[in-house]
Every structure is written in structure tokens, then in C-alpha cells.
Amino acid sequence: METLHVETETKQYPVFIGNEIITDLSPFIKELKPVVTSVLILSDKTVSALYMDNVIEALQGLDLPVHTFVVPNGDGEKSFSNYYNSLTFALENGLDRNSLILALGGGMIGDLAGFVAGTYMRGIRFIQIPTTLLAHDSAVGGKTGINHPLGKNMVGVFHQPEAVFYSINFLDTLPLTELRSGFAEVIKHALIQDEEFYNYLKEEISDLSDIQLENLSHILKKGISIKAEVVSQDEKEKGLRAILNFGHTLGHAIESESGYGTISHGDAVAIGMRFALKLSEELGNTNLHYKEISNWLKQFNYPGVPFQLDAMRLLSAMKRDKKSTSGHVKMVLLEAIGQPYVKEVSDSILLDALQKFLLTDKEQ
């Protein structure tokens, strides 16, 4: 088992990575102060059918009321209605300020459960139990929230977990589409912070089947370490943490304009990273090996921009992004691999770049 430590201005907590580490969950909960009075496991239908019994069994030694609440799966379920229904269930079952929420699932569940925990009775504790590769990004850092029809993750709070239990065996059942989605965030971490890690990925992973147990732990540890380092310096995204949104400005626009759940988060981010790389080359007059990276991404079958989306529509969505100020889009760009920066880009430049990008994308 590997143990990483996340330290922010408001919280310090461990991230446990390993096989079958869910067996260490009960002893960890027993040590929490104040003493936990009840537990609510929040999950989705797919993950619940696979792993809910494992988690309940791991909690048997606690001698506490354990409640379960299951929502439909899919990013479109990170919604006001599921948030409201989760709160109602917690109230009906008597959760108090010393209760604990367990987020069992991927990024959607982590965000939803964290938001419920962060706002229920003005904030109770929760633990992340990720079941996807994508969640290595969302489970660490304390960003929680739900989607709004006008924008992704527009409603939420910063609320750090008590711990993250990353049981690698829970990733065994991931379909290739979900593995691909999560791998996009791994690539993002490498591109913004660690050229050596990027080179490792390029050399070792040419197909999703190359992601095996022996390198998965290393990939998770490296990706989480990069995010933890950034979050420790800027917990609430007042500056440096914005670099973690590399690829997300266009990616989120594609998700919201396509309809949540139509395209996976990682697939959208992969498109957004390609666009950001191309724009970085054009604005910085530098060579970031855009074609080489694009060809590498194509090996994993990341899709192009959905055909129904045009440049003007995407620009409008990008201007609603949380990082935008007074309607001006701020893009995370690269000076070089591992050297990100944030730049406000004019509408005219963005529109022109998007039109060219979409045209090239549709021709390939």
C-alpha cells in the first residue's frame, strides 16, 4: 500500500493506494474524532451493484447505523434533483453533524457526495472511495459540486475529504471508455507539470491495454502527487491551481453544449488539450509537438469535436466558464511541456482559432 499526504491551508489528509485497501476503512473511521455516529454511503447504480456489498462488509466492525443512497449513473446525474434527494434522505435518516458520508464511485459521485457533505448542516465529514481512473483527479483537492444547464460544475463548495481510499481492484471492472476518459486526466497532469512523466507515458502506454496493475499504481501515485502539490499551494483556485484546468475550458464547453453524459469528461478534455496545445503554439510561436501528441492521442481513440457544435456556440459556452472574468476567456496554455501559464485571449483570436481547429478536426 502506498500512502500520499495532501496538505492544504485548511486540511491535511491521507490518500491510500493499493489492492484491497478497503479493509483498512473501518479502523480508520474508528480513529476519527469526534466519534462518527452514523455512515451514509452514496453511490450510483452501476458501482453499487459491483462494490456496495464490499464496503458494507468492511464497515461491519463499526457497530454504527449504515445507510445507502443510490442515484442513476452518468454525469448528467450530477444534478440539483439528486443533490436535493440526497439531502432529503440524510435528513429522513437522522444524520447529524458527526455523521460521515462515503463517496463510492467515480468523479460524478465524488463531486455530488462531497457537495452534500459540504453543505449538510453547514458541513460534515466525508471520505472518497474512487472506483475509476478519472477520479484520481476529482477525488483529491476538495472541489465538489453539481452541474447547471448553463455550465459544468457551476454550483459547489471547496470541501476537503477526511481521506481517499483508492482500492486499485475496484478499477478491474472499468470499461475501456471509462479507462480512456481517466487517462486523459493523467496526460493532463504530465503536460502541465512533469515532462519526465509525460515521456514515461509516451514510451510505456501506446494502447489502453498497456495500463496494467504493475504500472497503474505508479500512474495513480504520480498523477495524484502532481495535483496534491498544486492544491497545497492554492487550495481555492485563486492563482496557481487554475493550471489544473488545462484542456477544460473548451472541454467543459463541449460537455455542456453536447448535453451532459453525451461525451465523457475525459474525451472532452482530450479535445480541449489538443486545442490548447495548438493555440499555445500559435500565440507563443513555439513548437510543442502538437502533431506528435495529437497522433498519440488518436491511438487511444479519443474523438473529435461533435459535428453539431460550431465555433460561435463553443465560444459562448467558454465565456461562461468559471475562470472567465467579465466575459473574457482565460486559457491555460503551455510555454513548454511542464510549463503552463494562464492568458486572457480575445474573442476574435479564439473564434478564429476555433474555426480553424474545427475545420481541421472534421477533415481528419
Automatic annotation (TrEMBL):
Zn(2+) binds at E185, H248, H265. One of its GO terms (biological process) is aromatic amino acid family biosynthetic process. It is found in: Cytoplasm. Its EC number is 4.2.3.4. Its main location: cytoplasm. Residues 69-180 form the 3-dehydroquinate synthase N-terminal domain. One of its GO terms (molecular function) is metal ion binding. One of its GO terms (cellular component) is cytoplasm. It comes from the Bacteria. Keywords: Amino-acid biosynthesis, Aromatic amino acid biosynthesis, Cobalt, Cytoplasm, Lyase, Metal-binding, NAD, Nucleotide-binding, Zinc. CDD domains: DHQS. NAD(+) binds at T131, T132, K143, K152, F170, L171, D172, T173. Residues 182-324 form the 3-dehydroquinate synthase C-terminal domain. It catalyses: 7-phospho-2-dehydro-3-deoxy-D-arabino-heptonate = 3-dehydroquinate + phosphate. Its cofactor is NAD(+); Co(2+); Zn(2+). Pfam families: DHQ_synthase, DHQS_C. Pathway: Metabolic intermediate biosynthesis; chorismate biosynthesis; chorismate from D-erythrose 4-phosphate and phosphoenolpyruvate: step 2/7. It is an enzyme of class 4 (lyase). Belongs to the sugar phosphate cyclases superfamily. Dehydroquinate synthase family. Catalyzes the conversion of 3-deoxy-D-arabino-heptulosonate 7-phosphate (DAHP) to dehydroquinate (DHQ). This is 3-dehydroquinate synthase. The lineage of its organism: Bacteria, Bacillati, Bacillota, Bacilli, Bacillales. The gene is aroB.
